[in-house]
Amino acid sequence: MGGMGFIENNKALCMLSVLINTHLMMAAKACGVERFFYASSACVYNADKQRSEDVTPLKEEDAYPAMAEDGYGWEKLFSERMCRHFAEDFGLYTRVARFHNVYGTYGTWEGGREKAPAAMCRKVIEAQISGDHTVEIWGTGGQTRSFMWIDDCIKGIDLIMNNDVPEPVNLGSSELVSINELVDIVEEIAGIRLERKYDLDAPKGVNGRNSDNTKIQQYLGWEPDTKLRVGMEKTYHWIREQYVSKYGEGSSIRQARATLSTTVKDGARST
């Protein structure tokens, strides 16, 4: 996985993923694979529809006319088309889901590839353990997103694969929050209030994005429905366990910060 810091600093590397998808589809055709699932992304959507924090939820047709996220989004959109044409030309059973910000336990939580929910958990944990009660937020904090609990993602994949969903479909929560509100949730779980420092030069992605779940409801009679507060509490406590196991309750905090600082300088920033 890769958060916005990784995506914005590794556009060519993200584009090269199209080779993985090409080789997988060619191998699926050659070996007679019966069903093929492609994990796409909300980054395929037209950037002009994501300029405002006061968002209109993105419908599947909003991917065209194409103006996807530079690098990563274009690779995802191209691979969606490849799934379509392999289905049309070779009869390969394909299903495509556009993920909207998956988070949860057992996910990446440091090193530059983590997404905002995990990064916020780690930052709050570090602030609490170190006694330095500040937290860095990328952008103004007003950017809006929806975040999907991992269990909902897995259930959605299973339903999409085993039902008649012949076109790319959103797979995401429709519960919209700002990044500031996400920090509020983590602070509440941790039982702490922090001073917020905003890095306006850091990667922040589009200003607003949310999932319109009309189509997945029509196809499946279901949509991701785990409340963000519920999933974030589980995520926070799991990340805290990982953090303390790796860095300790305070004695190794200087080492932890040095490690994270080096990662940032290498261009793999966390949110």
Description:
Strand 1 (35-41), helix 4 and strand 2 form a beta-alpha-beta unit. Helix 5 crosses helix 9. This protein has 271 residues and is α/β, with parallel strands linked by helices. It has one domain (4-265): NAD(P)-binding Rossmann-like Domain (Rossmann fold, 3-Layer(aba) Sandwich), CATH 3.40.50.720. It is globular, with a radius of gyration of 19 Å. The protein has helices at residues 4-9, 11-15, 17-31, 72-90, 116-130, 150-161, 179-190, 214-220, 228-247, 253-265; strands at residues 35-41, 93-99, 102-103, 134-138, 144-146, 148-149, 169-171, 176-178, 195-199. Residues 262-271 have low confidence and may be disordered. It contains 10 helices and 9 strands. A 3-stranded parallel beta sheet has the order 1-2-7, sandwiched between helices. Strands 3-6 form a two-stranded parallel sheet.
